[in-house]
Amino acid sequence: MLASVDDVVAWGESLDQLLECKTGQLVFEDFLRTEYSEENLLFWLACENYKQITREKEMTAAAKKIYAEFVQVDAPRQINIDYVTREEIREHLSQPEPNCLDRAQGLIYGLMVNDCYPRFLKSEMYQVLLEQAEQQ
Predict the structure, then answer these.
(1) What would the pLDDT profile of 37-81 be if each residue is shown by its tens digit?
(2) For residues 9 and 35, what is the distance between their CA atoms, to the nearest angstrom?
(3) 3-state SS string over 20-65?
(4) HSE-up (13 A, CA, CB side) for residue 37
(5) Which of 135, 113, 122, 106 is nearest to 47 (CA)?
(6) In the prediction, which pLDDT does 4 show?
(7) pLDDT over 90 for what percent of the chain?
(8) What is the pTM of this model?
(9) Residue 4, CB-side half-sphere exposure with 13 Å CA sphere
(10) Buried b / exposed e along 73-96 (16+ C-beta atoms within 10 A)
């Protein structure tokens, strides 16, 4: 997995730049896996994909899948969100709207930007990539 110097440097500038890059997403996911918190990124990405769905039937199926995998209590990759947000999503499952996951996605983004991302930047994983990129 090769990333350009510009990419690796950009990842250090903002979480958004990291998330915009496919390689950046993979590296960040690897890092999060070491911290047992990759569900945050996977949920965020699932929400991004969900927003692209336009057909109601597909939207309902996708919302239910996301709920089962990330949102419901005891989900295999349960994300850390408050009860009210969790219930709000559950209530919208029968007729989900394009923005029904926005609040939860925002909470998880905040968690990543304030918690996971700063640790990623300090991690040996990122520092080694930065060194390798600068030596190219």
Answers:
(1) 999 999 999 999 999 999 999 999 999 999 999 999 999 999 999
(2) 22
(3) HCHHHHHHHHHHHHHCCCHHHHHHHHHHHHHHCCCCHHHHHHHHHH
(4) 15
(5) 106
(6) 84
(7) 91
(8) 0.93
(9) 5
(10) eebeeebebeeebbebbeebbeeb
